[in-house]
Amino acid sequence: MEKSERCELCGIPGKLTKHHLIPQRVSRSTKYSKDLKTDEGNFMWLCTECHSQVHALYTEQELRDLYFTKERLREAEKLKKFVEWRRKHPNFSGSSKMSNRKRF
Fold first, then answer.
1. The pTM is what?
2. Residue whose C-alpha is closest to residue 22's, from 37, 10, 1, 2
3. Can you give the pLDDT of all 104 residues of the chain as single tens digits?
């Protein structure tokens, strides 16, 4: 699902994707309510770059146990560093490949 506004982490406008604060796989267990899938409080709208970074930095268990609210995710140390960088590079597209390899 996509939405066009501003990312709830970096604030950069563009197409956004839905990030479930309690991951969908985890919310399917009997411990969590089935309502979490559609509960407005269980998701954030993130740009593709921020969304990819969240899942690159944290496992589903970490997201479930430590970063299950918008406030907690915004305060996550590793993610704060990325968001700060992202705000300085608003035109960066994670789809482009970057390499440290020197060209001759």
1. 0.74
2. 37
3. 556 689 999 999 988 999 999 887 654 554 555 555 555 678 899 999 999 999 999 999 999 899 999 999 999 999 999 999 999 999 887 654 444 444 44
